Structures are given as structure tokens and as C-alpha cells.
Amino acid sequence: MRRRILLFAVALLTAVGGFLAVQAPAQAAALTEVTGFGTNPSNLRMYVYVPDKLAAAPGLLVAIHYCTGTGPAMYSGTGYAQLADKYGFIVIYPSVTRSSQCFDVSSPQALKRDGGSDPVGIKSMIDYVRQRYPIDAKNIAATGISSGAMMTNVMLGDYPDVFSAGSAWAGVPFGCFATTNGSEWNSDCANGLITKTPQQWGDLVRNAYPGYTGARPRMQLWHGTLDDTLRYPNFGEEIKQWTNVHGLSQTPAVTDTPQANYTRTRYGSTGDHAPVEAISLAGYGHNLPVDAAATIHFLGLDTTTPTSPSSSPSSSTSVPPAGGACRVGYGVNAWNTGFTASVTVTNTGTTPINGWTLAFTLPSGQTVTSAWNATVTPAAGAVTARNVSYNGTIAAGASTTFGFQATHTGSTAAPAAFTLNGATCTT
């Protein structure tokens, strides 16, 4: 079952031309990595997208990736940055560094407010941005896919006083994936075998922050009826949980069909910002057609207009602005069924780059088998090469080189384009 979620992530990354095929923003704003952002017990990486123009009181979205994903992959593969340009909100893209690249939604530490692990690191990212921008405290939201959807449930449970709303795409209820043996995977939950009463599910959320009596964030849930990775019964259990958290009936206030094969139920009210909204996608598996616009509409992030120029977040990290501050050289030495590639990344900007991620798409049939001077994941399709401990800094005018070995099925062509920390490079 764990292999299925990994295969899903690869399919998600390679779906160029599919539901996540979104071009990176064409403006000067770029994805920026921030280091030293605060308490970070699980060594997450933080990426932030600040549009060129912000709303007067901008909203804040935390966009959480799937297993084997990264923050930069979530940035380039979804439409949230473009919508941030349109409405003037800021987006944080947390990025896991553990080998599975799945978020911790299982440990006792993760399922308790300020208990440790990934939720604490993500909360530090939010605090970092709030200290530097006039964020609307009533408009902070989270969304995620698969593992990120599970973490969305966890963040809203751990920090109900921080978030106004969440949107979970193909996830499971808060606490469903809980383990006590250090495992990140809970097969019973993944297979939809864990059922509880609404009160029991609600108590799991309430026990994450004992004594809290304030408002609870609104929740939007999406799930495919044919999901064989995080099976469909989890959808009904999520509905039980969040309606109970809000003190609502299990009976929808309204049921409609926003488009073919979609059944939407709303609980607590009939409007677009109901306390709980659930969309069932008939005939869809785990690989859902994520609708970024529908997500931010429910989250309430599409109600503002950019009014003022923004500035980059203050940190020890510099990244190249979009359009020509980086150059990539790519050379291949090929044989019958394999090849080695040498990739040289040059910082053509005027400030150092501290921490780099190079994103590119391998042509069909090419599969990476090993790499040096960089960590390259996944093995095929849209991949990212990330610096290792000794070559993370590229001074202005300097270069670094990494390489990888790969197999091929006939084509050893170079990738068509490269982006460095979200900025397009010349080749």
C-alpha cells in the first residue's frame, strides 16, 4: 500500500499537461527559500512565494505537498502562486527532508499542539511570515494533497486558533494515521478500516488542544470514490469528525452537483463558506483533478485586491530573480541503454544563492539510477535536484556541477527547461 502512494506521487509529478500542469508565474516574484525561520524539530525546509503586489492586509496560505513531493514541486505543479498574484496573498510551501518525503501525521508529538515534529516547524513558518508582513490574522488557511491533506487535518486540529479554514484533497481524519511504534504508515487507516462515532473523531481533535473553546476553522474535503491508496471510507469519517467539531448535524444543509460526477454536501449552512463542505468525485482515484480556484474560494482568499508592492522576506537566503539570473549547462555521455549527465549551474546574479533546488523534466523513457553532488528525486518525469551539505552556496558569478546516471529507452535528449529556486534559467 505504501508503494501505491509513492507511485501516485510519481504520477502526480509527471502529469505535465494534466490537472497540475501549471506554468510558473511570469512576474518577477519568485519562490524563495528561507532558512533560520524558527523552531524546526524535524528539519523541514521553508519556501515562500510573495507576489509583486500584496493586498493591504494579505491572506496567508500554507500549501502542503504529497509523499515524495517537495515545496518547489507543489509551487510549480499547482496554481496557488498565480492566484496569489491575482489576489495579493502569500503562500508558504513547507518541504519534508526525511527520506519518505511524507509529512508526520502519525506520531504522538505531531498530534498535540506544540508537541513537536512537523506541525511545530510549519507553525514557525507562519509566525515568520506574520512578523514580516501585515497578514490578516482572520485569513490564514491550509491546503494539501494526500500526505499534505492529512497534514492539513492535523494543522487545523493542533492550531485551531491560527487557521480560519482548510481544504484537504484525498486525506484522512485527524488522528486516523496515529501510530505508537515510530511507523509513518497506518495500513488500517489507509484501507478505510478505522471507523469511529462522530463524538470519538471530534474528541481526537479537541484533545490536541485541551481546554480550547474558541472558534474552529472551516473545512473543505475532497475525495475520489475509487481511491485505492487512502480509501473512500475515510471521506465519510472526515465528515463525521469535522461536523462534530463544529457541533453540526450529520445531515447536509444542502446537496448539489457543481459539475458532472461531483456531489457536494454542505453542513451548517448552504453558502460558499459553510462550516464544512465535502465534495465526492465519482469514478476518480487518488489522483484528483485539484481545482486551486475552488479551493481558495472556499478558503476566502479570493476576496482581496493587490494594492502595494511587496518586498522579499528578510532571511539569510538569496535566490535569483526570474529571468536570466542563472544559467545551466547540460552535457551527456550516452551508450546503448544508459547515459551520464553533467549539469553545471551558474549564478549569473549579483548576490549569493544559499540553498538551491534545480527543477527540470526528463524526457519520456529516462530514469535516474544514481546521482552525485546533488539529491535527485523522483527518478523520472518532473524531477528536482537539491544541493548537498557541501555545495549549497553559489557565489555571484560562480558555478557548481552535479551529475547523474540514468537509463533510457531510446532518447537521451536534454530537458527543455530548467528553473532554479523557481526562477527560469538560460541554457
TrEMBL record:
**Protein origin, superkingdom:** Bacteria
Q: Where is the CBM2 domain?
A: 319-427
Identify the stretch annotated as signal peptide in this record: 1-28
Q: Which InterPro entries match?
A: AB_hydrolase_fold, CBD2, CBM2/CBM3_carb-bd_dom_sf, CBM2_carb-bd_dom_sf, Esterase_phb, Plant_Biomass_Hydrol_Est
The protein, known as: CBM2 domain-containing protein
Q: Lineage, please?
A: Bacteria, Bacillati, Actinomycetota, Actinomycetes, Micromonosporales
- Quick one: a GO biological-process term for this protein? carbohydrate metabolic process
Query: Gene Ontology terms, cellular component aspect?
Result: extracellular region
Recorded hits in SUPFAM superfamilies, A to Z, give: alpha/beta-Hydrolases, Carbohydrate-binding domain
Keyword terms of this UniProt record: Hydrolase, Signal
Which is one GO molecular function term here? hydrolase activity, hydrolyzing O-glycosyl compounds
Q: Which organism is it from?
A: Actinoplanes cyaneus
